[in-house]
Fold this sequence. Notes:
A-crystallin/Hsp20_dom; HSP20-like_chaperone; stress response; unfolded protein binding; Alpha-crystallin/sHSP_animal
Amino acid sequence: MSLLPLLLSELEDTRRPSIYDPYYGLGLGDLLAVPARSGYLRPWRLAPHNDSGISNIQNDKKEFKVNLDVQQFKPEEINVKTAGDYITVEAKHEERSDEHGFVSRQFTRRYLVPQDVNKDAITSTLSSDGVLTIHAPKKAIAAKDERNISITQTNKPALKQGKKDGKPEKMET
Length: 173
């Protein structure tokens, strides 16, 4: 009885497409597929996120990298620019026909660039399968007021054994 509201809410979500869904307008996809037994362990609306490659951000020690799926757009319809601390990706195509009718698409994505990124060295590439990759290498860490301190060997032990009780005592400096 307690699973009934969950199942009904999942059915309600399938009838109402969301414009915020990254797969909005791309067809029915796996919605009509025969559900597997393991599908009942997870809500259906989370299933597309497992194989999603819509936007992937990676920020590690070497670089800031963004992978963005733009396969519906031609290279001349995509624009990548920087303004201030942001990278902006814009893409737009006019109305064209596809297997479902006519469609026009447009999107704008802004990514905040981390402070330790070299903004002058940002590059973008577009793969043959429609994945836009933005590379932004990190700045080299500059050593500030760094100097070497020489080590002097004293040739004396730091602790010496006491004569009376055998406990070590501090050496005089």
